[in-house]
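Minutes, project check-in
Item: structure for the 451-residue chain
Input as provided by the requester:
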Amino acid sequence: MSEYDYDLFVIGGGSGGVRAARIAAGHGARVAITEEHRYGGTCVIRGCVPKKFMVYAAHFAEEFHDAKSYGWDIENQVFDWNLLIKNKDTEIDRLNSIYITLLENAGVTIFNGHGSVLTPNSIQIEDQVVSADKILIATGGSPFIPPFSGSEHAITSNEAFYLEELPDRVIVVGGGYIAVEFAGIFNGLGSNTQLVYRGDQILRGFDQDIRNHLAEEITKKGIQVLLNQTIESIELAADGKRKVTFANGDTSVVDQVMYATGRNPNTEHLGLNAIDVKTGASGEILVDQYSRTNLDNVYAVGDVTDRIALTPVATMEGHCFADTQFGNNERIADHRDVPSAVFSQPQVATVGLTESEAREKHANIKTHTSEFRSLKLSLTDNTERTFMKLVVNVDNDQVLGAHMVGADSAEILQGIAIAIRAGATKSDFDRTVGIHPSTAEEFVTMRTPTA
């Protein structure tokens, strides 16, 4: 009989922690988990899932407009913000229950409360202390607002999901995927929307052509993109509006200011200093390829490690950890060629190397690009244009990256990601017969290099 209460104790009930707990329990380990908020974590409760519902809602206005050109008489287009939030909350409640049921069915002991580490083998949950052979920290990350005059009058994405009413005028601060997505949500639902970013172009880290194309498209849709700009102060007026003063002296009066300028790993109040777990400059837990900290029996997965902050990556890391430690199946989470999407309007999806990254690593690179108005929009006055790009290593013909802006980008690039992970060449793409008529077929018909 083990000297510990559990073989594994997981702190954090998000995607990575829940997956690790379930898989470890399936391998026969005695597993417990605790979560101080709701099971499902950032993605399910206050992240990608509710955000995607809001993206769907925002896109209907454009669909209704385009439908007229296809013979539909769409009248009384009235949007009810409160009904959207109510239905969203109902679905989140359902998903939270599913996560709990999955854990229960796997035989995982469930705690509810804040968990912290007392020693390398003991954990405190509220006023209770338990012991475990191994500890996994999967507490994720949280959005933050940088300090400045009036910063308390701004909100983050956490609060945006529960606003009592849709703001008539809103400023979204940031240039990453969360900022761009929420700017599209507010704009699509009818808010006068400004996107404020301190850099020279949105979506830093993405392929430059993708960044430029998306910026042009969202500007056409009505989002005012203010680049090389920051907020100096926010003043709250008596009527609840926010007077925003920018660094260049310009001012704007809006109903809400939402900051999406980054996320911090949730490592405070975990007791990590007491057991000397090493963390990085931003508080992220430092781990090796097996998600092990500097302590042999303490591990961490997901956003709290600040490797790649994506839900499927956290899930992969949690699964690999459980298989390695409890399943007699050593697996390392592979962070190469991880596909990702930005659910902006239009969508962005990408996998592999950007053109600039490819040129830094390889001597001979060529690119294939295509820009066009999709067939669906041909009968409408919608001027949205799709953009696609392939990055190819000339020396061996291998496709190193694929990038797209346009409708259904995420759905299309998921399949392309399999090909790139498998090492497909441009000749493999060229030999593949396209599905006609479709947007996706363009990826197998681009023959002439553009650069």
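Outcome recorded: The chain has a mean pLDDT of 96.
No further action items on this chain.
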